[in-house]
What we know:
CATH architecture of the largest domain: Sandwich
CATH topology of the largest domain: Jelly Rolls
CATH class of the largest domain: Mainly Beta
Distance between the termini: 20 Å
Oligomer: single chain
Helix content: 10-25%
Amino acid sequence: MALFLEPVFQQRIWGGRNLEQFGYDIPTDTTGECWGISAHPHGPNRVINGPYKGETLDQLWKSHRELFGNDSRDTFPLLTKILDANDKLSVQVHPDDDYARQHAGESGKTECWYILDCKEDAEIIYGVDADSKKEVEELIDKQAFDDLFHRVKVKPGDFYYVPAGTVHAIGEGIMILETQQSSDTTYRIYDYDRKDKDGNKRDLHLEESKAVIDVSNKTPNTTPEVTKYGENTYTEFVSNHFFTVGKWEVAESLNYEKPHSYCLISVIEGSGIVEVDGENFDIEKGTHFILTSEDKNITFKGQLTFIVSYS
């Protein structure tokens, strides 16, 4: 049976109310993130249907590994979020697996972004305009951030792969769906001297950032592959040992063959139903669920677009 999940909302200094566009009842005016599919201890989702109703995804991962193809990894590998950057995010970098396990006790954080919506002329920071670690360190020490950060204009439908070590920031007025390794380790480089609700500046992590920045990550480096299946369209954005992420655009009906023993699904447009082994489930923009290894006969019906990922 498919596992439908209750979103977990995270409050952020840069958040807003735009997640209401997905039909969510958000808690505050600074709701920055919807964790749609998460087994991370900072926000595990709760199952809302079927025999496992009420259990959290991290509990299921521990006690019912057969739902996930008996995946042998210690932790659930991925985390799916929707972010509302009502204000610009801090400029940050994430460590790779080796550094994170040594210093943070969890995996590294390679991620990717699908731009759901954005204001005109919105931009992200992606990479650095520097040719060496030494130059990066000098520019950070001088706080010469205008010379350091590389800015890129974005538009709805764009996709960006953000490997660990890439300096990055989501700009003001952007909504994204993020697929990432299940990690919450972030090193801030610059935060625009903002203060939190208590009047304190948020911590920066300059030495850690210097240690993990990869100066070679300067430009987005994926080429989407588009395939038509009758009236339906599949776009594969990225596929590597961290994750495979793609987008299905369903016109009326799609007989879906899972490409992996279990798949993460997030509906980003439209509505319809998904029929799983003869049982129908209503789905709409903002629905998140997992097709488990037990789910065999799957059909999507309706006009809808969803992001699928697996690792």
